[in-house]
């Protein structure tokens, strides 16, 4: 069986620090979609590798750290999926409790079914797109709401 | 593996060091209590976790003087199978294992190196203690163990750590570390008890020379930390050759001093003499924790300041 965990590479490169525009694009997405203000992430840098954005604490100076050969840096925050931005479940589990919109509250049995079947017929007064999945006060992660369905992106 | 009836003979050489030796031996027959640390980074409302666990028939009580630590009954409850664990709200961890980070006193904005970090119980504790605002370099030389560390950082939602896979002895210079934790590989005698499934590394025939590795790690940590900075050296073993003798080696080679430290568990001064060898008097300021006095794993902790 293949383990999904083995994503560690010996020669992993330092992710690049994104430009101010790119940072603003990603943080604006979080603000507009979920109502989580950009300032929430003021103490963090946004880094990027390929199609992934990572959140990493803002160090006094980055230069000395960049001389280290790193395996991972920070928390996987957002991904670029074709032309959209998609929040990771990891990031939503950490920051999703701050969301004020596009939050889906499921009952335990609905959550169960969503996790098992990966989708659920679902009608709600929501904009289509990515949503925060919550159940009994706990944030489980990311889902996609579209066309009367809820699709799971839970790990 | 050491059988329980062999324990008295094995630990006999520590009779002088271990207070109330017979009581210690008796204590090894009992299992340890179960604890977890609650992760407020991911769980802003503690009662969600506490109520959730109680609904599963678990009794949960806060531990005095250990912020965020809870004691769990029954002690064989499989915390690792719970939703609370899966979502990263809790980290099961024995109580004494929290002491090295209490000694380290990491602050937001500081550069911290956790030199032997996997699987990350202390790295994640540092992240919590600094509100995810310190710059943590979490290193371990073993790839398989690093994978477990990375998984725990993700599970707990830590954004303030990066991971590296160096041999600590040759960790590169260049980052002005304020504090370094050396939670060294050790023979693990402090963990030993009935039904213990690990092994006492020191006993293994032909095993690598642990004290030599530990000295290499500690000296490198000292050379990496900035002047005035702090290095905490800890092990979960009783053997003075892996504890006081390692720190003694540093104190003789470098300009360092041991800083006294308050701990919320009963402890004893480090030994200053062992099998005819006399150690630096500062070692009395190091701390020894014993299983029967702490209801936890035995530990050694020395908080060291770089003077020059
Ligand atoms: C006592 S364990 C660390 C436990 C960890 N600090 C925690 O609290 O979860 C010691 C670790 O040191 C690592 N190690 C052993 N030799 C090393 C070396 N030369 N350099 C760096 N790490 C090493 C081992 O792989 C092991 O994970």
Question: Span between N and C termini of chain A?
Answer: 18 Å
* Number of beta strands of chain B: 15
**Domains counted in the coordinates of chain A: how many?**
2
What is the average of the pLDDT values of chain B? 94
Indicate the proportion of strand residues of chain A: 35-45%
Number of helices of chain B: 10
Across the major sheet of chain A, the strand order is 1-2-3-5-6
Oligomer: heterodimer
Largest sheet of chain B: 9 strands, mixed
The CATH top-level class label of the domain at 94-306 in chain B: Alpha Beta
CATH superfamily of the domain at 94-306 in chain B: Vaccinia Virus protein VP39
Poorly predicted ranges of chain B: none
Tally of individual helices of chain A: 4
The Cα radius of gyration of chain B reads 19 Å
- How do the helices and strands follow one another from N- to C-terminus of chain B? HHEHEEHEHEHEHEEHEHEEEEEHE
Tell me which ligands are bound: S-adenosylmethionine
Please give a handful of descriptors for the protein shown:
heterodimer; A: alpha+beta; Archaeosine Trna-guanine Transglycosylase, Chain: A, domain 4; 2 domains; five-stranded mixed beta sheet; 11 strands; 23% helix; elongated; disordered N terminus; B: 308 residues; alpha/beta; Rossmann fold; nine-stranded mixed beta sheet; four-stranded antiparallel beta sheet; 15 strands; binds S-adenosylmethionine
Give a description of the structure.
The complex is a heterodimer of chains A (155) and B (308). Chain A is built from 4 helices and 11 strands; from the N terminus they run E-H-E-E-H-E-E-E-H-E-H-E-E-E-E. Chain A has 155 residues and is of the alpha+beta class. Chain A folds into 2 domains: 16-88, no CATH class; 102-152, Archaeosine Trna-guanine Transglycosylase, Chain: A, domain 4 (Roll). In chain A, the strands form 2 sheets. A 5-stranded antiparallel β-sheet of chain A has the order 1-2-3-5-6. In chain A, strands 7-9-10-11-8 form a 5-stranded mixed β-sheet. The radius of gyration of chain A is 17 Å and the shape is elongated. By secondary structure, chain B is an alpha/beta fold. Chain B has a domain at 94-306: 3-Layer(aba) Sandwich (Rossmann fold). Helices cover 27% and strands 22% of the residues of chain B. In chain B, a hairpin with a 6-residue loop joins strand 2 (59-62) and strand 3. Chain B starts with 6 loop residues before the first helix and ends with a strand. The interface between A and B is medium-sized, with 33 and 37 residues. The structure holds S-adenosylmethionine. S-adenosylmethionine is lined by residues 115-122, 140-142, 145, 167-169, 183, 185, 213, 217 of chain B.
């Amino acid at each position: 069986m293949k383990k999904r965990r083995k994503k560690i590479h010996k020669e992993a490169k330092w992710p690049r620090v994104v430009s101010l525009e790119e940072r603003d694009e990603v943080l604006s997405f979080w603000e507009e979609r979920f109502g989580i203000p950009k300032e929430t992430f003021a103490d963090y840098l946004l880094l990027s590798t390929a199609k992934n954005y990572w959140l990493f604490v803002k160090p006094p100076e980055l230069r000395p750290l960049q001389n280290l050969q790193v395996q991972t840096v920070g928390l996987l925050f957002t991904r670029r999926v074709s032309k959209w931005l998609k929040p990771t479940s990891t990031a939503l589990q950490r920051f999703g409790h701050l969301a004020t919109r596009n939050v889906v509250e499921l009952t335990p049995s609905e959550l169960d079914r969503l996790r098992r079947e990966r989708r659920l017929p679902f009608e709600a007064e929501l904009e289509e797109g990515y949503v925060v999945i919550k159940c009994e006060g706990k944030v489980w992660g990311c889902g996609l709401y579209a066309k009367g369905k809820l699709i799971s992106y839970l790990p | 593996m050491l059988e329980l009836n062999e324990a008295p003979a094995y630990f006999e050489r520590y009779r002088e060091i271990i207070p109330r030796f017979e009581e210690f031996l008796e204590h090894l027959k009992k299992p340890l209590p179960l604890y977890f640390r609650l992760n407020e980074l991911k769980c802003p409302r503690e009662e969600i976790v506490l109520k959730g666990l109680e609904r599963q028939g678990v009794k949960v009580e806060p531990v005095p003087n250990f912020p965020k630590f809870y004691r769990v009954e029954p002690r064989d409850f499989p915390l690792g199978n719970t939703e609370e664990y899966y979502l990263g709200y809790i980290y099961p961890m024995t109580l004494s294992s929290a002491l090295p980070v209490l000694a380290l006193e990491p602050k937001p904005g500081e550069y911290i190196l956790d030199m032997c970090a996997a699987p990350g119980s202390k790295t994640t504790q540092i992240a919590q203690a600094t509100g995810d605002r310190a710059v943590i370099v979490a290193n371990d030389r073993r790839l398989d163990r690093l994978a477990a560390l990375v998984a725990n950082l993700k599970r707990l939602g830590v954004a303030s750590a990066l991971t590296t896979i160096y041999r600590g002895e040759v960790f590169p210079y260049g980052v002005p570390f304020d504090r370094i934790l050396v939670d060294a590989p050790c023979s693990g005698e402090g963990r030993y008890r009935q039904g213990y499934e690990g092994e006492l590394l020191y006993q293994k025939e032909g095993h690598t020379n642990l004290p030599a590795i530990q000295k290499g790690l500690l000296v490198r940590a000292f050379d990496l930390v900035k002047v005035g900075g702090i290095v905490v050296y800890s092990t979960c073993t009783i053997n003075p050759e892996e504890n006081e003798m390692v720190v003694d080696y540093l104190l003789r080679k470098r300009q360092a001093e041991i800083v006294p430290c308050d701990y919320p568990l009963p402890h004893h001064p480090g030994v200053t003499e062992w099998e005819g060898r006399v150690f630096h008097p500062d070692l009395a300021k190091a701390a020894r924790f014993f299983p029967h006095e702490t209801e936890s794993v035995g530990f050694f902790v020395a908080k060291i300041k770089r003077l020059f």
